[in-house]
Amino acid sequence: MCQACRPWQTKSLHSWNSCSCGETSSKEARRNVSAGDMDAEREALQSTAFPEVQTFCQKHGLMFEVVDLRWGIRNTEATDHMTTELCLEELDRCRKTSIGPAFVALLGDQYGPSPVPTLIEEKEWEALRAQLTSRPRDLDLVARRFRRDENAVPPTYLLQALGTVEAHGPEEATLTSVLRSGAQEARRLGLITQEQWYRYHWSVIEWEIDRGLLSLTDGDQGATVFLREIQDLHKHILEDCALKMVDRLTDGCLDTDAQNLLSGLKGRIADMQPGVLQAHHLPWSRDLVNPKNKAHAQYLKELGEQFVARANHQVLEHLRELEAGRRELAWLYQEIRHHLGLSAEATRTFCGRQELLAQLAQQLWQNDGRPHSPMVLFGPPGIGKTALMCKLAEQMPRLLGRKTVTVLRLLGMSQMSSNARGLLQSICFQLCLAYGLPLPPAQVLEAHARVVQFFHTLLHTVSCRNFESLVILLDSMDDVDSICRARRVPWLPPKCPPRVHLILSACSGQRGILDTMRQTLTDPEAYWEVKPLSGNQGQEMIQLLLAASRRTLSPEQRELLWASLPECGHPGRLRLAFEEARKWASFTIPAPLASTAKEAMHQLCARLEQTHGQLLVAHVLGYIVSSRHGLSEAELKDALSLDDEVLQAVYRDWTPPSKELLRFPPLLWVRLRRDLGHCLARRPVDGFTLLAIAHRQLAEVVQERYLSGPERAKRHGVLADFFSGAWSQGTKKLITLPLVGKPLNLDRKVAPQPLWFSDTVANLRKLKELPHHLVHSGRIEELKQEVLGITAMAWSLEERLLVVGTQDGFVAVWDMEEQQVIHILTGHTGEVRYVKVFAKGTLALSASKDHTLRLWDLLSGQEKFTIWDGGSKDRTEICSLHMDEAKKVVYLASGSKVSAWHLATAELVFRILGDASDRWMCAAVLASRATLLTVSEAGVVSLWSSAAGKLQGRQHLSSIKEETPTCGVSVQKQGKLVAGFSKGSISLVSPEGDSLLEKLPEAVRFLVLSEDESLLAAGFGRSVRIFLADPQGFHRFMATDLEHEDTVETAGFGPENNLIITGSRDALIQVWSLLEQGTLLDILEGVGAPMSLLAWGGALVASASQQSSSFKVWDLTYIQKPRACTPFLDRTGLTAVSHNGGYIYFPKIGDKNKVTIWDSAEGEEQDALDTSNEVRCLEVAQQANLLFTGLVSGVVLVFPLNSRQDVMCIPPPEARKAIRCMALSKGEERLAIAYDSIVLVLDISPGDPCPVIDGPTYTFYTQLPETISSVAVLADYRVIYGMTSGDLFLYECANSKVFPLEAHGSQVTCMQVSHKEQLVVSGSEEALLCLWDLQACKWRFQMSYMNSYCRGVQCVCFSMDDKYVYAGLKDRSIIVWSVLDGTLLAVQFVHAVVNRIIPTSNGFVAPTRHGYLIRQRFQCPSSRTSQQDPLKNFKKAVWKVKSRQREELAAAAGTLQDLRSASTQGNECKSNKRSQICLLV
After folding, report:
1. Is the overall model pTM greater than 0.70, yes or no?
2. % helix / strand / coil in the chain, to the nearest 5?
């Protein structure tokens, strides 16, 4: 006979709202499987059947999980009494949460052992003891193994663990036999019940099948039993006592009692649940089930097919029931019951707060008859706000003294209550049912804005009834996603009408939620603080909790508990203490409890580590904390199955049961989860239930304890592997297990992670988690390959939606109030090129490279129709999409074809086929002229009827010669097309002809028209030119162009034509005022990739890139508001600074022939100096009060800063040689001016009224083909210069000697001399910093550095005492480096590239590319505390420090190679390099 399969949980497609009826919203399929001698069957299900069901579930948006608590563990653990309890608990969870298959049993020919009860109640104990008094040895055994616990109410006897493993088997068998005999006699005498008798006779398999199937009163609930019958087995088991396939006694004889119980179990199943039984008959084989046996292989195949068919059928049936439940509002009743159940649990141990309750009741009563503000209860996390809110809901009718309708939602505790849209919908439905009002119509539910409006109207409707009062309690506003991200709560009414009360709760001091609410609810009297309980109330709370759990404490334990919690009134801390104390038996001698919450968390972690092992606890909690929103149990177990460190620790003393696959044993997780208890929270996210850390303090302790240094990157790396699907779908992963000793290539059987599970089900978990883990594990290149660039955007202002198209054909609809995706529209198989929103923002049309147009309903997320363009298989570039809403026609131009369709019917109106060899580059529908106009690559203008597609005429462009069209935009009011061309021409094209509008110096990259068509922007190179409409077309609007430092990619006009924004290839956005003739107002940082898309939506601007999957939305109303710190708007990077940052000098925006002098204190331009030529570099001699401006013409103009005397001029050595760079000596007595291959050295002497600059004292030529890129000069006329090739030289002007220094690998970008002029530091593009000894002409230290995002050194300087080097890197960080020993001391990310670093007496100042001045104080303590990490913001970098002195010593000792191999990587420096740690503060 067969043993029952052990509990497997295929994560039931289960409901997060775990009520007895209604919709399930946490999408999981969980199956509990029970198995004994069924190893071959289990292996067959694992290898083929489970993956097939998993794929089926994923296609329906469900998560599938199998839990076999006895897989992968030793036999002693599998039959352990605690394992049995956990199995039954997991089985109950499966039944409760599954929305499909919940339990599968594999039943063969073994009944299995009976577990010893872990707990015996006092009366039952006395009945058993009475039967054993005549057998002293048996009585002694039982008394020794069970110990009385007086802390249980009533007292119980607890099974004690054995001291040695060796004695475990025989003694456990003897104990089982003794208890069985005692129970048998007690049952015969009527001292115990039949149910109590089962506890000593039933095997694990029968307990599981009874719990999972036979005890059910509402059908089979997703259960299946596979029964294996072996023919003629009874003939063989009596002949050969060595056959282990049946139950046997210790002497080898057949255990007839067990076999009889097994027969009875099979009979019970056949009688009570015949529909779940799947019987299979196998021929006899001595090796039981052998997959190599043809008949057995066929049996295993049929078993798998039956399982798949039944599981899939159960899933579909349950989904149909859920859909019917939605129509019948079962989902609403489930939601209400769920929150009421949670409320009852929260108030069960409520105590204290009577004074606050009375005050709140008084305020409610006073507000009942008048308009008033909602009430907000606030306090720190864990202070008891939820319990108070639930108590208020319970007492509300009594508090108001009249008939009251109460609505309670514990936000974040169900899927619907986690976002504002679902929350308001459920409340609206509940109110309509409670007051007998019509339910919200479908068109209201389609848009969040309409739901908000309906909710507000509903509150006023209820108020006007003037009968019942309405109270809505919303607990934990922190857990509504949109509030966490917003600056206000738009759906929250600032005033409640009479007889309507809104009570909210929020955490103080966390994520700014309370501040967000204060933006909407401004009445200070609306806020009520929840304070700690008194000491006596705290003790009362713990007593109530103990009583509710049927526990008490001994006097000594109670005294210790109160001593550990002096005057503690924080309910969260009290709950932690209770969770610890409830585990104490009366004979337990507990350790003192921690006095603070943080200490309690450390104490908890230490206890978990002692029980479960430090590595497992560290990795499990590390994965949960490292995840973005939490992990489901299935995801966590998959991650652990990919974690080689964990698996090697688990299988240290035994080998896994399978030779083909390797998984983490689920039992180990379930044990840990049970001990974590209330420390784990379950959060509904994207329809799944995710595990998160419930206490903020615990999350912080986990970060500190388990995620420091490289451990954090390791956790993210494993999660990145999982969510990328790298080891799924049969891909095997190598591992070396301790007892095997050789690498094994095993399938980890983790869930596959495609981007789309089906045409309509996206893998949202992957989309949200994978980029997060790739970033934090430093795998940036992989991230770039995984992300999906954004290619099209359009706003629906009326519905407050943003529609986004992507490279792989998705169209996402974002609710910008809720800041979340409400629809992912699928169907396109190619890049989405255009998105057009119309019909008052309710419909959108998307055009893709797959030759289809799709019409979408943005409110319902449904596709209305698809139009196939009938194109070739090659994905021709679409040149334009035009929609005529008045005539309900859409036009699409691509290649040499233009097609038109009716929007209402999707019927083709006409199709125009042009010359394939001369494709159309731009097209326009001129509605006022009923004309379709196209311009071809060869400059042929074709005119067609826009109604019928008939050719009306052709002509060649007369204003353009030998240029190709690059872009175009139609001007409907003028009936013209504006076209841009490859050599910079802009032409106005109309049916009457064409005319040249402008000739730009470079190719026209884009043309953009304002909404009212009065302004036109043309982008070319790094500039944008603006034109104003006139009767003849357009004319230039401003004398100067708008300039970027990199190629301009896109632009857009503000809705009132007062602003224009421009985006460039360097990922920056610039905001310009058109009212002030192009004044640059601000510089914004995009998404870290070339800015290719900008879309205005009222005052909001969305920015995106085709090379990034993210977008940003900017609210530009702030532009008109005064700012505390006004940035200096320099985009050149040629910044000079004087007076410790008091004044900043930079080329003027839009006119590089002028230098702006910026007053940092006043935040405004003080003056502008005219140089009459473009500025190439700037230097300030602060002591001499001189500004040196190096020009493109080769001239250096010297401006006195303290007066307005005549400007001095230093001419170039050769005509029209542009200056490359300049440098001043530290004493400002020498000036070096570098050209391509020439260096001038000049003297600066004191003079009156200003210093005197003599002609060049020395001039020398480099005699090299490369050009000079950086220069430095010393007072003794030595010059150090670096080349674009990376070469570096020291030149002694006095004796004309040149000394080559060891070269950099790439262009030298910066160079600075120490203040004592003994050292020089150089930086290069390959991110190499070198510290040079000028006397020896050799480097002392080299520091090579690489960050995943960017490389290169921008600027360097020495501290005033020459002890440190400050370096600004192109990855937007500043590093501090020790001159003494080359140690990397500190790193600070400053979120902007710094142009220059200038030392101050106690730190430095640094101007940034964003126009802000960083002032940093630098201090170097002799030691640091263990909590400080100066490199905490430098986690994705790799660096290596080389010391010449150490290398020479090592080489002399013959250990040079060993020294180099010890170079630090990741976040670690060599131990002998860090004598002290410096911090940026």
Report:
1. no
2. 30, 30, 40
